[in-house]
């Protein structure tokens, strides 16, 4: 790359870091990329670090030594997440979201890149200090949330299927009890999708009783994996007890009244 003025270099370096979260980047990478001295690169990184922290974009960690460099950890201040989720809760209480059977329509939320981006960043912040190898979710509605979170944590996503896929090779399948209707269901995961003893973060869009998430936990045991955290966008408060105890929720559905056309949505436990 040609030698850039400092102002242009700062912009390019910032973009480089933002697109490579949780990645250790040696100072020599920047020095060679911009044909600049390491001392100049270090000064630039100090400026970027200050802006990241002041604007709540995340942390820029410096590791000393021959194998050192810088690593960007995206984080979203809880105050910013609180404001965003509060607005989202208001949107989710719109009467026209009520579907036959008392269900709540959320597909438009899960299809908006801006919403997914903010939700993913919030989950990434909530679990930033945990040692995680991979994000797990179950098809299909949890997939966008899992990938949004993974983009900020820079880790892969594995998808648990309702039925095994021929294109994914041999799979491990288990039966689990659905928390809502107590029916026996099946889920499977390709053997090649997850290495043994992986540290896993489970992400899902909605948790009623928690049967599906509990099933994923049981499935993980077949891979000798460990659950490092569970994040759900919305939980239901209309149950006496969840099958999953340790989890982070961003919103809570208190009830849907089809007769009065009223929906009650509050903040999840992440904000309490």
Automatic annotation (TrEMBL):
Q: Which UniProt keywords apply?
A: DNA-binding, Transcription, Transcription regulation
Q: Specify whether DNA-binding is a keyword of the entry.
A: yes
Q: Name one Pfam family in it.
A: Pribosyltran
Recite the lineage of the species.
Bacteria, Bacillati, Bacillota, Bacilli, Bacillales
> Which residues does the UniProt record annotate as the domain Phosphoribosyltransferase?
118-257
Q: Which organism is the protein's source?
A: Paenibacillus eucommiae
Q: Where is the signal peptide?
A: none
* Gene3D superfamilies in the cross-refs: 3.40.50.2020, Winged helix-like DNA-binding domain superfamily/Winged helix DNA-binding domain (1.10.10.10)
Q: What is this protein called?
A: Purine operon repressor
